[in-house]
């Protein structure tokens, strides 16, 4: 679609919230050629004037469509879906009952963030090894496995989270899983989840939006226990 020439997206590499609208744009064949700016979190570029003018919170993703500004990852995804969907690229089912199942998984996917990323990843990133309570960390990993076990049961016998095709549920969920794998999670105890990750990772829209810095090498496998 040529409509993307009037759009602009500020985003950060490897950020699941940023990846979600990028996937929606790619699924609607709007990512290629879309004006955008990859920002550096290390350099605090998300606090620069151009972003703050559009998003006073200084967060990404920040998105513009012409003169319209839409912030917050989920809001951007829903806006794009409502405005730019057609029968070939729809990510939300027309049927209200089927759509309810997609909504359920979409909004449930944040449990990965709250039960794994925040209590474990952020803790490890922000504390020195000698300052961590290993017993508490072990307990957090146990709870993380419980969370992954829930999704393992959900995905057993399925290729996608809802139905037999890629939906907005997968847009919301997959980036969180990919983030865990990036940080060393092998998913060895969760074969259905691993199969899901491998399948979605091969999707052309996922490859087209793959975090650039992930292609440059590995990182510390802090989630190897998963």
TrEMBL record:
Residues 5-88 form the GST N-terminal domain. Coiled coil: none annotated. InterPro entries: Glutathione-S-Trfase_C-like, Glutathione-S-Trfase_C_sf, Glutathione_S-Trfase, Glutathione_S-Trfase_N, GST_C, Thioredoxin-like_sf. Pfam families: GST_C, GST_N_3. It comes from the Eukaryota. Transmembrane segments: none annotated. Residues 95-221 form the GST C-terminal domain. PROSITE patterns: GST_CTER, GST_NTER. Belongs to the GST superfamily. PANTHER family: GLUTATHIONE S-TRANSFERASE GSTA (PTHR44051:SF8), GLUTATHIONE S-TRANSFERASE-RELATED (PTHR44051). This is Glutathione S-transferase. It comes from Dreissena polymorpha (Zebra mussel).
């Amino acid at each position: 679609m040529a409509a993307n020439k009037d759009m602009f997206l500020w985003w950060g590499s490897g950020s699941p919230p940023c990846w979600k609208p990028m996937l929606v744009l790619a699924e609607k064949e709007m990512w290629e050629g879309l004006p955008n700016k990859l920002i550096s979190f290390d350099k605090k570029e998300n606090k620069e004037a151009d972003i703050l003018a559009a998003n006073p919170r200084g967060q990404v993703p920040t998105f513009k469509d012409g003169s319209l500004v839409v912030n917050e990852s989920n809001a951007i995804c829903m806006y794009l879906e409502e405005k730019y969907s057609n029968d070939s690229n729809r990510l939300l089912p027309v049927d209200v009952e089927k759509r309810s199942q997609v909504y359920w998984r979409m909004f449930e996917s944040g449990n990965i963030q709250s039960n794994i990323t925040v209590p474990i990843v952020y803790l490890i990133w922000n504390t020195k090894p000698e300052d961590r309570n290993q017993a508490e960390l072990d307990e957090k990993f146990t709870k993380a496995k419980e969370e992954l076990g829930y999704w393992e049961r959900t995905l057993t016998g399925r290729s996608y989270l809802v139905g037999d095709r890629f939906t907005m549920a997968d847009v919301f969920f997959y980036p969180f899983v990919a983030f865990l794998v990036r940080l060393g999670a092998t998913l060895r105890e969760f074969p259905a989840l691993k199969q899901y990750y491998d399948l979605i990772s091969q999707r052309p829209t996922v490859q087209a939006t793959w975090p650039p810095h992930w292609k440059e090498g590995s990182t510390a496998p802090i989630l190897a226990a998963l």
